[in-house]
């Protein structure tokens, strides 16, 4: 789910090793056409944060590789960003990391007459996502390979968790900077 099209896959294959050397993970790649092609790359650091300086660093590191490999025909704009608060969930471990938060999941097939589900993430089991679906008594297990699209739902709880994580990261960075001074 990190990439949907063959073109996205080519960009992902080029971007992932570079991001890893910078201590980052590529969350999603989308190459979108229009008047001008947009190459959108979402990434985050291992601690789940992604500041503007991190985006700039990754963007600069990608430019030469993308220019040389030319994975997109014609001119394009490169946009490197964080996944945001209501982030896409594109890897199995994301569903575990965000356990306890609401998510929307869209499948690539019909299950019980529908493709879209919403509920509280309950972790992972083998290669399946566990989710407490709205209006259902039992926890559902959805095979990860069936998921076409998934993202967190913006809720007060998610906003609070995001703010708390930012405070923690800020404190840790400040503490490290004080020690280094």
Q: Residue share in helices? A: 25-40%
Strand content: 25-35%
Shape: globular
- Our measurement of the CA-to-CA distance between the termini, rounded to an integer number of angstroms, reads 43 Å
Count every beta strand, where a strand is a DSSP E run of 2 or more residues.
Answer: 8
Instruction: Describe the strand arrangement of the main beta sheet, using strand numbers.
Output: 7-6-5-4-8
Q: Report the C-alpha radius of gyration, rounded.
A: 18 Å
CATH superfamily of the largest domain: Ribosome maturation factor RimP, C-terminal domain
Question: Helix count, per DSSP?
Answer: 4
Kindly identify the CATH topology of the largest domain.
Answer: SH3 type barrels
Task: Note the main sheet.
Answer: 5 strands, antiparallel
Secondary-structure class: alpha+beta
Uncertain runs are 173-181
Descriptive overview:
By secondary structure, the protein is an alpha+beta fold. It folds into 2 domains: 6-81, GMP Synthetase, Chain A, domain 3 (2-Layer Sandwich); 85-181, Ribosome maturation factor RimP, C-terminal domain (SH3 type barrels, Roll), CATH 2.30.30. Helices cover 36% and strands 34% of the residues. It has 4 helices and 8 strands; from the N terminus they run αββαβαβββββα. It has helices spanning 6-21, 52-69, 92-97, 156-180; strands at residues 24-32, 37-45, 76-81, 102-111, 114-125, 128-133, 140-143, 147-152. The strands form 2 sheets. The protein has a 5-stranded antiparallel beta sheet. Strand 1 (24-32) and strand 2 (37-45) form a beta hairpin. Helix 1 crosses helix 2. The protein is globular. The model is unreliable at 173-181 (pLDDT under 50).
């Amino acid at each position: 789910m990190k990439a949907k099209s063959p073109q996205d896959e080519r960009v992902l294959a080029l971007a992932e090793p570079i991001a890893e050397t910078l201590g980052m993970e590529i969350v999603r790649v989308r190459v979108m056409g229009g008047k001008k092609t947009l190459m959108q790359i979402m990434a985050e650091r291992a601690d789940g944060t992604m500041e503007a300086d991190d985006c700039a660093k990754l963007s600069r590191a990608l430019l030469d590789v993308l220019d040389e490999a030319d994975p997109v025909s014609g001119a394009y704009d490169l946009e490197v960003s964080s996944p945001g608060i209501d982030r896409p969930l594109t890897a199995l471990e994301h569903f575990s990391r965000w356990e306890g938060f609401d998510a929307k999941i869209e499948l690539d097939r019909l299950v019980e007459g529908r493709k879209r589900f919403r509920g509280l993430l309950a972790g992972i089991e083998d290669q399946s996502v566990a989710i407490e679906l709205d209006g259902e008594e039992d926890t559902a297990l959805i095979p990860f390979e069936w998921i076409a699209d998934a993202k967190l739902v913006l809720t007060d709880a998610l906003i609070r968790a995001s703010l708390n994580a930012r405070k923690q990261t800020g404190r840790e960075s400040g503490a490290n900077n004080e020690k280094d001074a």
